């Protein structure tokens, strides 16, 4: 066995000979970016391990000669055959871009399933010999007159220590807890959006509906792969892997709970319910349910209905008798996060034709109008998250997030304003749109060859070069960040899938792009993408830019609404049941639409 110490986390793990550094990191609970799930194809899991560089690592196209000389290795391709100290580069994920709540489009009155009722009970006498629980339940008409052994074992002491003045905590008709004294003013819940990349949570005062605090964090499951297929495949290998994926996301949510409670100065024992949304895979993994059958056709989930569970059973550190509700999914790749978007935006309650899109590794699309609610999911791939892009990265400090070309001059903006370290999804869309407009990319997505650039200004010709993967265009002044032909193809595949899905839904409804009244962009990516660039590359249907409206983390909004309002929760359940799912893989016209959607079409404004 060998010792592997990770810095700056200062975590050490013992591993068997031949285990990779990435596997050691997973065992130690250290997050290493591994977008491809450890297949060696993305090059994102670079770590510094000088003692391993000569004896264990092989040259790799993702590592420059300078990096190899400095001791950098790919964690997934570096086996451990000695004690190692591994330096993991700092991660500056701007998870705060996806906050706990987006922009609520309408107010809602607080009417949660959770209630607290303060009682002053008469103590028992020889004349009144009712049992403690009977005495309590008699004062609470309408509740289920049953209780678990845990509550019953504590009840005698609680009643007598409080002089029979207590507060009952009730969830719907179930008695959850009995507390000493009057605690009615302290009643909190948590809404959580379990994203593939980011977790967003809000601590909510259920007496008022006010948000006490909101935080976001990266989903630690990213270490097992950037996309849901990678995680499904990892979970399918063994029950232990499935348990590990669940453990990691629960630990991350517990960390958010602790930080939220501290920020709001709330005792975690005052948090009695968690309402969560997520895509169908994330829903399964959060509950520890095997998602294996989601990967192959016909993409069958274990459940789509809402699932209620005890918080303690899932390992969530809220009140020990607290409840967790996983909101309903619609299909294998349309989850409760889409239900949350539909609920928050009120798509089913508005006149006209409205399109909602949540762009990520999967592009979930909802088309509402003419008395119908259609949904589909497109396998956009992880390009919008920066994965499978040579210099791609998530929206983090140093990522190029905006690109403009004026004449022969290229202007870039980075998150944080510093030097460019890579390019994120919004920057990629901007860059390709700008290159297309400037004539560096043709309508089919072909990047100009360095030897065929007479039509370009000198400032652009100088940025074209041949790299290890063919022609590429340099974006950063130091020449380290560039767009390759493969990057452009990855973006074409991603945007083509989403655009084709939108066209299929419009066809199903007998409508056209010009009939659309609004396009709602949900999620962090939708908040930061340039409308103009998205239209130029054909990511979105051809509508006027003022019809495109970012709605923030609408999935998180839906979770919040379902937490604070009985009526909204029941409406969400109805939306999940009545939505019509269009399975694109079963449509003979999808491939045709997909191919037709790959090219770029310049549209004037």
Secondary structure topology:
Blueprint: E1 2-7, E2 11-15, H1 21-28, E3 46-48, H2 65-70, E4 72-74, E5 84-87, E6 114-120, H3 132-138, H4 149-161, E7 165-171, E8 174-180, E9 188-194, E10 198-205, E11 211-218, H5 228-236, H6 239-264, E12 271-278, H7 280-287, E13 307-310, H8 311-314, E14 323-326, H9 336-345, E15 354-358, E16 363-369, E17 372-378, E18 399-406, E19 409-414, E20 422-423, H10 425-437, H11 458-461, E21 464-467, E22 470-474, E23 482-484, H12 485-509, E24 518-522, H13 523-528, H14 531-536, E25 548-552, H15 554-564, H16 566-578, E26 580-581, H17 590-596
Parallel strand pairs: 1-5, 9-12, 12-14, 15-24, 17-26, 18-20, 24-25
Antiparallel strand pairs: 1-2, 3-4, 6-7, 7-8, 9-10, 10-11, 13-14, 15-16, 16-17, 18-19, 21-22, 22-23
Helix pairs in contact: 5-6, 9-15, 9-16, 12-17, 15-16
